Amino acid sequence: MELATLRFVESVLSALAVGLLLLPRLIEEDGARFKKVIAGAAVLRLLFGFGLIVATARNIIPAGRPVDSDALLQFISGTVIGKAWVATQILAAVFAGATLARLRVSNLWLDRATLGLGLAVLAVVSVTGHAVDDSLPIYTQLSFPFHTLAGLTWIGGLLGLVYWMLTGRGKPPEVAWRLAERWSLVAKGAMVIVLISGLILAWETVGSFGFMLATPYGRLLSVKLALLCAALLLALSLARYLTLGSSKKDFDLGWYAKIGGFEGGCALGLLFIAGWIATITPAAHENNVYWPLPFRVTYAGTWGLKVTPWIDPTWQWGVAGAALAVAAALAWLAPALVAAVGFTPLPQLRDWRKYSTAALALAAAVCGTVSLSVQAYPETYTDPPIAYTAASVKRGFETFQANCIPCHGVTGEGNGPMAKDLKVPPADLTAPHVATHTLGDIFHWLTYGGQSGVMPPFADAIGEDERWDLINFLTVLSNSNQSRFLSPKGVIPWLVAPNFALEDPKGEIDDLEKLRGVPTLVSFARCKPEDADFADRVASLKAAAETVKAMGAHHVADYFGECPADPNALTPSHPDATELTYSIINHYLDEPVVNEIPEGHFLIDRSGYVRARFRHFGTDDGNLALLKAQIALTAKEPVVYVSPHQH
Question: In this structure, are residues 579 and 525 in contact, taking their beta carbons and an 8 Å threshold?
């Protein structure tokens, strides 16, 4: 909280100074009465900057180590945040010097230069926060300074406007009206930038809508958005006041300052939340995930499934919501409809529609939400702490074999030996519906028992890490039904390739994810000289290796037996686990399920999706030509970030 408070005070001082510099420029006023306030705010901002770096260091340096001058100097010179702080303090010092110079020198160019320096100080506020995270895309990093510059300009100008109104009661009403009108245009432009850059930042730092309520970062962001909405409603009332014909001549400075003060209060609360958010873990990287509601909204888990008309509650609530929405629209249009048929609407009808439309619209929203809702749990949006790797999948497979086969069957299709005696049939874990549940939902059921009450809790029988391993296995298994349709002709990106560790003699690449950016062919084979197809298989593997090399793609070879070695290929650190994992998604239509791959090749695109599958490369089956075409196609596609647990 100390760090958040310091960031808040520092930002307010900077914003107020810039706001008081900007407003006089809008009406060509000299602004002499604000010079001391501006200089005081700029100097105080510089001083609070020193407190901020001490608090930041205390927050990062281990508790057992004292934050003395040596530790502080090492922190400043040896960290990205420290170096960024030095740059911002230098800029703040120059800005403070310029504001002090304005106390003795009256010069238009000095005023403009000081305003430019102040805007630069606002823009760099974010560089001592999440903006220094170099793992973020460049467009996100650039959004931070635009967001802080526009947001703090709006807040500073708003505070300055209120201050101007309170101290400018002797000014002509026309001058106050002109200032308010011109500031309104600036504020609208700033708010557009805030909204656009805020959406970009939220996309990267929050990750999903569920995290808005499931994480501390998201909950604070929700409060921030609520304060922003309140401020915008107050701003709307001020903007509407300016459109009144009498406002220009009889401008009410007191009323405008009061409403602006309420808006400024919302803005200050918003700014404090923003400073607080800058000191905590972004929602997308948060492990402390707790979903507070007993339901969640999902299209895939409701209307995305097969819905039976009249019988399914999803259909019933959805139709009721649509009917109420139509009724709300008719209620709002009632006076116009009455007039259209030749009658004069009663005056009470216009008042009635306000309340009836609101009530009907609220009821429609509730029904629509219910139709899109499914049961949720505190763990619903929990991210797996166990990486989605072949080694984890293999451990999960072993846990499944030991605990789940009696009900769900060897292949997970719900056909185990005990299934016929259960009052509720076990779920088919290979079916597409599994993907409509979050991984946190599945963890909850494994821990506390299934929704139907038939599946018992496994918290005592299976450890927490083992449950997450089992979920990683189920993630692969749930793809096995659709993966049967993978072919050499390629598919759209939907199946995330399970990650696995690699052996690299150079020590540069330690897992499959490190190969992203270039298409990769992952080849599996078992070669025995006594097999009838041994020669054909050897020729196929050699052709695959030569083609991949010629096309400039990566090659990973998971071979058993006397297969021809590819000197350019990387090999898995755990070949058995890797083969087992990919054998789950190597099923073919009307063929038995096996946990070995005699021969198989998976083409993975630059982003980590499985895009094509080849059983064999013969001399006349055309698969080599298709492989070349798919490598060429995926090599041109842009790289997108893929969550390893995309489900």
Answer: no
pLDDT at position 646: 52
Question: Cα 645 to chain center, whole Å?
Answer: 14
The amino acid sitting at 491 is V
- Tell me, rounded to whole angstroms, the distance of Cα 49 from its chain centroid: 30
pLDDT in tens, 243-273: 888 888 888 888 999 999 999 999 999 999 9
8-state DSSP, 511: B
Q: What is the pLDDT of residues 11-64, one digit of tens each?
A: 899 999 999 999 988 888 888 888 999 999 999 999 988 887 777 777 776 666
In angstroms, the CA 417 to CA 461 distance is 21
Q: Is 229 exposed, middle or buried (0-12, 13-18, 19+ CB in 10 A)?
A: exposed
Rounded to 10°, the helix 108-123/2-26 angle is 150
Per the CB < 8 A criterion, the answer to whether 617 and 623 are in contact is: yes
Distance of CA 564 to the CA centre of its chain: 45
Percentage above 70 pLDDT, the chain: 96
Angstrom distance (rounded) from CA 437 to CA 296: 11
> How would you list the strands of the sheet with 520-527, edge to edge?
495-496, 609-614, 599-604, 520-527, 554-561
Taking only the tens place, the pLDDT of each residue in 603-619 is: 999 999 999 999 999 98
Nearest to 491 by CA among 499, 483, 501, 479: 483
Span 414-434, mean pLDDT?
90
Strands (E), 455-579: 495-496, 502-503, 520-527, 554-561, 571-572
Count other C-beta atoms under 10 Å from residue 107's C-beta.
Answer: 11
The tokens 């303090």 sit on which residue? 89
Q: Residue 438 burial by CB count (10 A; 0-12/13-18/19+): exposed, middle or buried?
A: buried
Least trusted range by pLDDT, from 132-136, 154-158, 325-329, 480-484: 132-136
Helices (H), 450-533: 464-477, 480-483
Q: CB–CB of 52/6 below 8 Å?
A: yes
Which residue type sits at 245? G
H or E element: which one contains 295?
strand 295-297
What is the DSSP code string of 345-408? Answer: PPHHHHHHHHHHHHHHHHHHHHHHHHHTEEE--TTTTPPPSS--BHHHHHHHHHHHHHHTHHHH
Phi (first) and psi of residue 599, to 5 degrees: -160, 135
What does the pLDDT read at residue 647? 45
> In the structure, what pLDDT confidence band is assigned to residue 206 with cuts at 50, 70 and 90?
confident
Q: Which two tokens stand for residue 564?
A: 């021809």
